[in-house]
Amino acid sequence: MFEIKFWIAGISVFVLFAAVTFLVKVMIKMLLDKLREIADDLKKIVENITKIITQHQALEKRVTDLEITVKEIKETQDRCANCNL
């Protein structure tokens, strides 16, 4: 009788261990899938930020070019204003 209870207890512990192991594996897989999704989202965010930075740099260059052009126009106007035409 004692042997049967011992075997039943041993089998129960084994089944419980197998079930817990399976659940842990499933949970780890779910977590990894979520982490992959988050990583993909972060990658998209970084790409968008990179695009924005590139656009900002291009706009800064345009502004600088326009400032130079405005300065040149003002200098030309000043020279023409000083001319006795």
Could you explain the architecture of this structure?
- With 85 residues, the protein is mainly α.
- 95% of the residues lie in helices and 0% in strands.
- It contains 1 helix and no strands.
List the main descriptive attributes of the protein structure presented here:
85 residues, mainly alpha, 1 helix, 95% helix, 0% strand
Helix content: over 70%
Work out the helix count.
Answer: 1
**What class, by secondary structure content?**
mainly alpha
Basic shape: rod-shaped
Beta percentage is under 5%
SSE pattern: H
Summarize the main sheet: none
Radius of gyration: 36 Å
User: What is the CA–CA distance across the termini?
Assistant: 125 Å
Poorly predicted runs: none
Counted beta strands: 0
Q: Averaged pLDDT, please?
A: 92
Summarize this entry quickly:
The chain has 85 residues and is an all-alpha fold.
What is the topology?
Layout (H helix, E strand, L loop, with lengths): L1 H81 L3
